[in-house]
């Protein structure tokens, strides 16, 4: 059986440049759709978060504006309710081992920019995954977690030169938060030496695969990146 670890942010806010706290968390679609696709494939999925804290879902990701329709909101809310026994008891991130999993997957939302971007346990999990060539899926704002993936011996960023995508600066601008942020995902990835690319149009589905690294640009990429991982490992 294929074993999957989904690493979720424990943050319920994102601290902006002026110090204010913007409510956020995990983007619902980016957790729910990959979780569905992985479990429907017959894979075993476990969750982990910093300190084993149950995730907060970004309220916008459970609104009509965030998902497109009242029916979709109701579907997501129902699925979250059904998954409460799983969501309320994630593993502690400091207690998991990359070697126990075939796939490690990070959903987005602004939450990872608050905690996983500076979380050493998450960073070293990613380092272990990269060095062991474990399949690593990272979606939307979750490439923020990649920023912490520094080799402890050399201090080098282990993903330098790798092809990837993530939430684009243009998308952050359209969302109205780009000029309020301390930093932006696209900018930081490029600064660190990633070979970043994005879809021609904002918010279009876009997936980049570089070896065992699978990245999706935005919520619209949730299904595509998870399906690509399942297809490649089947």
Task: Summarize the structure in words.
With 234 residues, this protein is α/β, with parallel strands linked by helices. The protein has one domain (3-233): Class I glutamine amidotransferase (GATase) domain (Rossmann fold), CATH 3.40.50. The protein has nine helices and eleven strands. It has helices spanning 28-40, 64-67, 70-82, 84-87, 111-114, 120-131, 169-174, 185-192, 222-233, and strands spanning 3-7, 13-15, 21-23, 44-49, 91-92, 103-106, 135-139, 163-164, 195-196, 207-210, 213-216. A seven-stranded mixed β-sheet has the order 5-4-1-6-7-11-10, with helices on both faces. The protein has a two-stranded antiparallel sheet with strand order 2-3. A two-stranded parallel ribbon has the order 8-9. Strand 10 (207-210) and strand 11 form a beta hairpin. The chain starts with a strand and ends with a helix. One of its GO terms (biological process) is proteolysis. Keywords: Hydrolase, Lyase, Protease, Stress response. It comes from Salinibacterium amurskyense.
CATH class division: Alpha Beta
- When the domains are counted, the total is 1
Task: Please outline the major beta sheet.
Answer: 7 strands, mixed
The value of Rg in angstroms is 16 Å
Strand order in the sheet with the most strands: 5-4-1-6-7-11-10
Mean pLDDT, to the nearest integer, reads: 98
Sum this structure up briefly:
This protein has nine helices and eleven strands. It has 234 residues and is an alpha/beta fold. The chain has a seven-stranded mixed sheet, sandwiched between helices. A two-stranded antiparallel sheet has the order 2-3. The chain has a two-stranded parallel sheet with strand order 8-9.
